[in-house]
């Protein structure tokens, strides 16, 4: 068996949509599972949708996600060039070869002639699919030569069989049988000399030795035409893996045109690249066993095409948050701080102990962009009601809170070691001396320092984060309010 060669062939039309990245991931995993090659090819011939800088976005996204290609535009390889616009000479040559083999023909029909015979606009208005009537398929070789010599504009169309069936096999969907009478003579080379998307794909995949093609199932209907092209040339047909779409909900596909989250959007919100890749792998693929958290090498080992679902996958933000939170908890303190600090600094101007804040935040962080909204109390203590001191589980109320703050204030005022350990030591000594539950002192301290019902860290951590001067000021303010 030949070594597996897969490709990812995006168009540089903007940011990387998560569905596209999932396609790249599956192609990468399929190749690496077999010790094969993963190829990057840029399909840039759609100049109307081309976006300046989008090719760099593709490079950076794949590298950031760990999907490093073995051959591509930037590193070359035995089948260079890997940019479609640099391969233009090949497509016309192959189309002309197919004409000579009898698998394609020149079509000189003008738009006006097609409208008169086939009713293009009428079909479009009625929502019908335009079908070419095969008029130029009957032209003699002499007539074709005369019209080519006269410089008449033309397209090259694939000559489809009109009887029988074509069977297409997909590794996910199985055998798909199509009645050949339903197949239109599709255009291979347009009147401007440019190849159509389908034709260029087949030529490039064959030229680059691609053995397995991973793509969205919106291309399933084109698949029989691909097979017929391969057969017309006498080339081996690659294995196909069509993937069901990623959906926003039951009725709407995720789409960057509709403003749905791209990979770059997710990273900007503070999702870790490794977590995004882990989640995307599970978005339409089920591993054997119960494991959900995978490193990329673990995904390579676990991946199997048989686990890919035929059903659309719903993008579940909560599941992504869960997976991301698992990755965040596994970070070292320094790595967490590196990711979290920009988000903290966007919300906090006051000088604080950022290391203690990071230790308090890390086990509570699902994604980094949710950090700022939890830190509003740090720069300025919000107005709060004394009812916040009431906590049934802690058995505290405004009266007990006043007594607790009065007891701890002089102890804290005399404390020199204003660290988590130092604050913890004196408060727990006071708790033991008073013979009370921990919450009797710590809940009122948390409320006085934050003024919010939920905060990153308890009273001890908040004191260390805010520092001695600010902590004492807030305790005194709490007492005065009580």
Nutshell version of this structure?
The chain is mostly helical. It has helices at residues 18-33, 54-65, 88-101, 111-118, 120-125, 141-149, 197-207, 223-233, 263-268, 273-282, 296-302, 317-329, 333-345, 354-361, 376-379, 398-413, 420-434, 438-450, 459-466, 468-481, and strands at 5-8, 37-40, 104-107, 155-158, 165-170, 174-179, 187-189, 212-216, 239-243, 246-247, 313-314. Helix 1 links the parallel strand 1 (5-8) and strand 2 (37-40).
Keywords:
mainly alpha; 20 helices; 482 residues; 11 strands; 3-stranded antiparallel β-sheet
Q: List the total number of helices.
A: 20
What gap, in angstroms, lies between the N and C termini? Answer: 80 Å
Label the overall shape: elongated
**Which stretches are low in confidence, meaning pLDDT under 50 for 5 or more residues running?**
none
- Count of β-strands: 11
Quickly give the structural class.
mainly alpha
Provide the gyration radius in Å: 32 Å
Mean pLDDT: 92
